[in-house]
Amino acid sequence: MTSSNRVYLYDTTLRDGAQTQGVDFSAADKARIARALDALGLDYIEGGWPGANPTDDSFFSNPPVFTRAKLAAFGMTRRAGRSAANDPGLNALMAHEAVKVVTMVGKAWDFQVTVALGIELEENLRMIGDSVAHACTKVGEVMLDAEHFFDGYKKNPDFALASLKAAYDNGARWMVLCDTNGGSLPHEIDRIVREVIDAGIPGSHLGVHCHNDTDAAVANSLAAVKAGVRQVQGTINGLGERCGNANLVSIIPNLMLKMGFETGIGEGDLKNLVGVSRALDEVLDRKPNRSQPYVGGSAFAHKGGLHVSAVAKDPSCYEHIDPSRVGNARQIVVSDQAGRSNIVARMADLGIDIEMVKRDALVRVVEQMQVDFDPREVTDLVDLIKRLEHEGYAYDTSAASFELLVRRALGQVPEYFMLERYRVIDERRRNAVGEWVTLSEATVKVEVGGREFMQVGEGNGPVHAFDVALRAVLTGAYPELVALELADYRVRIVESTAGTGAKTRVTIESTDGKGQRWTTVGVHTNVLEASLEALQDSIAYMLYTFRQAA
After folding, report:
1. pLDDT at 357
2. pTM summary value
3. Going by fewer Cβ within 10 Å, which terminus of the chain is more open, N or C?
């Protein structure tokens, strides 16, 4: 065991993360992500594999300047039959001045050596030792990623340990124990790490690199730290090949807030965890995982009335940490499952007292929404929410539409524009070269500021065409709408028994180009009408929030 309480964090998002299916980083993407990781306070940022592809070569030729992290280059040991000094692949790792750390992969499983590499076991050990010794003369810090270490140790512990000692005895700063196939479990990790330390490799020089094929990569990494390792490798949001790598977004707060370890990330830095996670999703044009622990939008969301009532008294009733410590926020979810306490708490977050909402105002809102129940039967806001959700609205995932609903009932949202009528035409025809093409054309008549405008827009679908036409009118009066982007568009059938006449729910996620996102919802038997309701709410919400902030 080691007595040090300091754990070093090594990020491999730019390499392991790039192996995720569907992920393709550009050099500019890598630089943007690397800067965010450096600002967070990670100790090591692995930039990729110099010489492996043009993207990595471009990144290492002009890397971002780090203020806190060390830039690591990843590669492999010398090839069999070559000397370390004359191996082009190995020396490419040390060719860039900005590289402070070299991390090289070496086999630690005898099966992999004899089958995958087809060489003798002793030659593999010489490859590790020679490569580490050579790299130590070129850069300040050298690591061995002991590939397949845990599987190798289970089959032949003597050879697996010999691979570590070949690096350790030749000056490697870190020997990283890799669960490359991701098949190990925490109790195995704990036992093996302790045995490695007992065999003479100090925990202060051991790291761990876990894959997530058993959904245990985070647990395995924490088990390794508890057993004595002092470096943890992983990726942001758990990106990686197959099932991904250990998720640093979960590992970091677990180490700091649950296990009491010190890292290079301070309490103030930890508040940026949500921002870093979402910045990566932004680069990848992915929707953030709402259920991701610590940073997800639902990580501290409360929907059940009993939960909300308890949280209002003391958040620790249903929250394991204060969400602000990782840059997140509590959400009180409004839905048909909500009790009165949910509604009261959600409105309190908006600075509204539920008693301010009058029944006659709710009736007017219901009439404007044209839903399928008598507005005169509405008793209060709780009743209205439950009725609307019964009709197909989903306010637990569409907080912007909920806020607009409440504020409209209070008369706080101006009528920024009025859609008087519209017409959409879809055309399928052959183009000049005989290929089939489909075009949509929308014509809208809109009243803005007492004036009427008519505009035509074309798009690759009816909703897109309508959006183009409507915004062509509105951006003249509201130039801030130029920045409005529709980030996601989802359609769900609410009543499947009605066939093609089923009621449809459309959810639209929007962004202002500055990191702010909001979600709106529309429901109708006509998918276009549902889409237009959600789209108009999105526009109104941006205009309202923009003017409130001004």
Report:
1. 73
2. 0.71
3. C
Say which amino acid occupies 121. L
Q: For residues 462 and 528, is the Cβ–Cβ distance under 8 A?
A: yes
8 Å CB contact between 300 and 323: yes
Q: Are residues 88 and 213 in the same domain?
A: yes
Classify residue 167 by its DSSP letter: H
Q: Residue 42 contacts by C-beta under 8 Å, 6 or more apart in sequence?
A: 9, 10, 11, 68, 69, 248, 264, 265
Contact (CB, 8 A) for 524 and 397: no
In a domain? residue 296:
no
Q: What does the alpha-carbon distance between residue 397 and residue 394 come to, in Å, rounded to a whole number?
A: 6
Each residue's pLDDT tens digit, 497-518? 445 557 888 999 999 877 788 9
Dig out the tokens for 144 from the structure.
């061995």
Q: Return d(Cα 330, Cα 310) in angstroms, integer.
A: 13
Whether 189 maps to a domain, the answer reads: yes
Q: Are 378 and 422 part of one and the same domain?
A: no
Handedness of CA 41, 43, 48, 50 (dihedral sign): positive
pLDDT in tens, 463-480: 999 999 999 999 999 999
Find, among 9, 15, 5, the residue nearest to 231 by Cα.
Answer: 9
* pLDDT < 70 positions in the chain: 1-3, 304-306, 308, 332-344, 354, 495-501, 550
The answer to whether 368 touches 325, Cβ cutoff 8 Å, is no
pLDDT for 495 equals: 64
Alpha carbon distance 378, 384 (integer Å):
6
**Sole residue written with tokens 């926020």:** 329
